[in-house]
Amino acid sequence: MANKLSVHIDVDVLDPAELTAEEQKAMQLAQEAANDAYAPYSNFLVGAALLLEDGTLFKGSNQENAAYPSGLCAERTALFALSAQHPKAKIKLLAVTARRRHEHEHLAAMPCGACRQVMAEYEYKQKEPIPVLLQAADGKFIRFKSVGDLLPFQFTPEHL
Ligand code: THU
User: Fold this and answer.
1) Which of 61, 70, 107, 112 to mutate to test the pocket of ligand 1 (most atoms within 8 A of CB)?
2) Which fold would CATH assign to domain 11-149?
């Protein structure tokens, strides 16, 4: 008989007032970052914000390209820029939001698989969980305790 293994993931679904002050700040910066997205092809504006251990915030937005696959998502833009400029920085929170151009309503921002893999790399690197706060539908938010919860059974340097 096959051994069964089940994965249980707890997330918090939150109203804006239930966010901590730090989460509110990070999400606000992510929303501002979305305004800077270069997304002339999809018109889907994504913003990401990283709260660092020292309290500073770092932002990223999606950057598209006429050669479509050359573009990059907001999450990876933020993470790669941070790691390039501040390689020792520890991330305390990653916040992500999205909206359509010319619309104010914030949309659910579900990180793509490639972004989850990159998040997992930096979580592994810093040896501490990176909580992830995602914009959800209807003005709500979803709080994941770690990237591991967004990417179970992940490929890590230990598999090399
Ligand atoms: N996008 C992100 O920035 N993050 C994601 O996790 C999903 C998708 C961007 C990529 C592209 O510029 C646009 O959203 C539409 O796919």
Assistant:
1) 112
2) Cytidine Deaminase; domain 2 (3.40.140)
